[in-house]
Structures are given as structure tokens and as C-alpha cells.
TrEMBL record:
<dbReference type="InterPro" id="IPR023214">
    <property type="entry name" value="HAD_sf"/>
</dbReference>
<dbReference type="InterPro" id="IPR036412">
    <property type="entry name" value="HAD-like_sf"/>
</dbReference>
<protein>
    <submittedName>
        <fullName>Haloacid dehalogenase-like hydrolase</fullName>
    </submittedName>
</protein>
<dbReference type="GO" id="GO:0016787">
    <property type="term" value="F:hydrolase activity"/>
</dbReference>
<keyword id="KW-0378">Hydrolase</keyword>
<dbReference type="Pfam" id="PF12710">
    <property type="entry name" value="HAD"/>
</dbReference>
<keyword id="KW-0479">Metal-binding</keyword>
<comment type="similarity">
    <text>Belongs to the HAD-like hydrolase superfamily. SerB family.</text>
</comment>
<dbReference type="InterPro" id="IPR050582">
    <property type="entry name" value="HAD-like_SerB"/>
</dbReference>
<keyword id="KW-0460">Magnesium</keyword>
<dbReference type="GO" id="GO:0046872">
    <property type="term" value="F:metal ion binding"/>
</dbReference>
Amino acid sequence: MNPAAKYAILDLDGTLLPGHTSRHYLQVLVDDGTCDRQAGLSCLDAIAQFAAAEKAPSGLLDEIYRLYALAMKGASVAQARFAAEKTWRASRGTLFSFVPELLSLLRASGYRIHLLSGNHDFPVQEAAIDLGLSGGHGAVVEVADGRFTGRLLSAPGAAGGKLAFVRCLADAVGFDAENSLAIGNSASDAEIFACVGKAVAFEPDAELRRLAAGQPWHVVDRRTILRVCARLTARATAA
């Protein structure tokens, strides 16, 4: 059994930066001719509906993931990675101003920092590499012989997706739940909040704010996140 590790698990969109990285990535894939154009455009329409809805219609997120997997069928992994690099280069300048200090604080406190996002996997990996994090994980489509098969393997934004990842992490490398920390802004992040000792809801959407009521979770905004996280990481370091 591996010794348990103390993790900081961070969401990406709406938590470290505004906007929807997945929308940008799909647009690059479509514009470059990397993915199936019709399925890609349909996926973009579905993402726009999801972003505009105060409460997304039932099944819409599953449909987004289905369309994404369909759009990627037959696409080259090398081309998809190139599109992810372009996407992250364009997105990194929009990071919230507190992010560098937050990451420095977490590193100094001994956390392994991991991005866990409902976005597509390659842009999340690019973000994690660029930011010097321990890893990044998003939606994964099966690959065979250097091309995507169209079979969706994981969808962290869907119900149970983020919790499943944390369980896999615990099985693979050990997971110090009590001293680990999670930061996110949407209802899917509540799955992780329920299994870590330190949960931070950053400018939460209406559903996550509702779920946070009565929970020992910390609700913050871009003015207060560093102060709250400094307090929480000091406790974890002392422990």
C-alpha cells in the first residue's frame, strides 16, 4: 500500500479562468478540419446551450460528451494535441490574477496539485504541464493506432465522474482525504467536496451554492480565496 498523499484538486473553467475552454478547443478542431465538422458544430451548439442555462436540461451534458466523442472519431491524436496547444496558448492569458500566488501557496504547503475538469483531456493536460502541476485529467476518448475511436472512456463533468477519478487516485497512489483540498465552482465539484477535509467553492453557481448550505465548505470569491486558502493550508501543514 502506497503512503497517502495530500492533494489539491482544482477545477479549471470558472475556477482558474473565466469562460469555456472546451468551446474554444472544439472551435479550433472544427476550423482546422481535425474533427468531424457536423458533429463538432452540434457539440458547440450544445455547449452554448449548457453555458446559457441557469439549470441545464436533463441529459444535455451527456449529449455534449456523446457529440464530442462522435466528432473525434477518426481524428489524429497528433492533430488534436496541436489544437490543444493552440487552445491553451490563447486561454492562459485569461487566468485569474490570484492563480500564480494560489499555486505557490499550495506547493509550499506540500500539496500535489492536480487539475480535474469536465473539459476535454488534451487542453487540461496542456494547462497542467504549463502550470507545473502534478497532472491533469479531463474527458477521454479511446485511441487506437494513433486515432480516436469515438468511444468515450471518461467524462469527469458527468454525474459520478469526478468522484470516480478520486477513487482511482486513492487506489493508485494513496489519498490523504482529511488533509486534501478541492476548489471548484459547479455542482460536479460537490462530489469531491464530500470526500476531502478542505473544500472551497469559488464563486459557485446556483446549484453548488445551494448544496453548500449547511456544509463545512468555504464559499469564496476572487478577493477572498487567497486568504481562506492560506488559513486552510496552514492547518494542513500543522497537521
